[in-house]
Design brief:
single chain, two-stranded antiparallel sheet, Rossmann fold, 13 helices, 49% helix, 11% strand, 352 residues, six-stranded parallel β-sheet
């Protein structure tokens, strides 16, 4: 018998499948958007040009985000470009960075977006937004920041390099596994997250071995959407990965890939149901070790030292993480944080 539960779905229309990119004009019509400014990065410029050629009368212009620079300045230029072109929406093409900018534009300038997703980051399904860092950081959380539609076309992921695909996929994996022991989990969420773990665990090695395998790409993208479709309150993995990578300028996806096995191993005794589901989905005996071995199979760095962090930075990292608050099934002491970061720095198999 199923226990009573509450499930709040996100208000995002999802289009998934090969050729879904062709739906952009229809989605603009559906949401009554007449002039969309395309937001992309260098890697998605060709796709942006393709969309513009398909619907030239609906595209105001293309705005390509610079690779670097002050985040607020880049945001201001984007908003000004949209105003100059009388754009009534943003059509964002790409992964976490441009989608994050689109959500911030929605929060600060009121321009809603349609997202064409090209990585496994899942940012398009998170209602939170942020800009800047440290004392200058602004952030918020509102459903109006979510895209009106999210378009997932597996063909657009074929050009994603194997290592980038692996790291982005393990970032999605981090969302799924932490969801399985989140305080707001329920049967719907368990089913989605468990399927996400299975899809990603099976597909990512095939993507790395054969980047042009469209079936593997489709499964990985489906798993990433399932992982992103519901976000549990952040546990120790997200507290570690997000705060450490921000403090030391480490790659987002790689940082999550590294911390996930250690966080899961740490929580093993406190969340046996989650561990059972993860292990079953991966086809392994131990959830934490299975995730670690998956990183190895994907040829990803297993330690923070592989991302350029210095051992002397560990005490500062401990201070930063210990100063924050987060929800976790097992109480986390300062010594626990030190142990987690130290193990994650050296990159050997988790031991708890």
């Amino acid at each position: 018998m199923t226990d009573p539960f509450v499930y709040q779905s996100q208000a995002v229309r999802i289009l998934f499948g090969r050729g879904a990119l062709q739906s952009v004009p229809d989605e603009l019509t559906l949401h009554q958007r007449l002039r969309a400014l395309i937001l992309c990065t260098t890697s998605s410029r060709a796709t942006a040009e393709r969309v513009r050629s398909q619907a030239p009368d609906r595209i105001a212009d293309i705005h390509q985000l610079p690779k670097s620079g002050d985040a607020r300045e880049r945001l201001a230029k984007l908003v000004e470009h949209a105003r100059q072109k009388n754009a009534d929406s943003i059509l964002v093409i790409g992964g976490g960075s441009p989608i994050g900018f689109a959500k911030t534009v929605a929060a600060t300038a009121g321009l809603r977006s349609i997202a064409v997703v090209t990585t496994y980051s899942g940012s398009e399904m998170a209602s939170s937004w942020s800009i800047g860092a440290g004392k200058d950081r602004m952030a918020g959380d509102h459903d109006n920041c979510l895209p009106l539609s999210a378009i997932y076309d597996p063909d657009l992921t074929l050009s994603l390099p194997p290592r980038t695909s692996a790291a982005s996929g393990m970032n999605a994996m981090a969302h799924a596994v932490e969801t399985l022991y989140g305080p707001d989990r329920n049967p719907v969420v368990e089913a989605m997250a468990s399927t996400a773990v299975a899809q990603l665990g099976s597909a990512l090695p095939r993507v790395v071995e054969r980047p042009d395998d469209i079936e593997a790409r489709t499964s990985a993208l489906y798993g990433a959407w399932l992982a992103a479709a519901f976000r549990a309150q952040a546990g120790v993995e997200h507290a570690l990965a997000q705060r450490v990578r921000q403090a030391f300028g480490l790659d987002h996806s790689h940082c999550h890939a590294i911390f996930t096995p250690y966080a899961i191993a740490f929580n093993a005794k406190a969340a046996p149901r989650a561990m059972e589901l993860i292990a079953h989905a991966l086809g392994v005996k131990d959830a934490g070790r299975g995730l670690y071995d998956l990183n190895v199979r994907l040829k990803l760095p297993t330690g923070l030292k592989g991302l350029g962090m210095q051992e002397a930075d560990i005490p500062k990292a401990v201070d930063i993480v210990a100063a924050g608050k987060f929800v976790n099934p097992r109480p986390v002491t300062r010594d626990d944080i030190a142990n987690l970061i130290t193990q994650a720095f050296h990159g050997e198999a988790p031991k708890f």
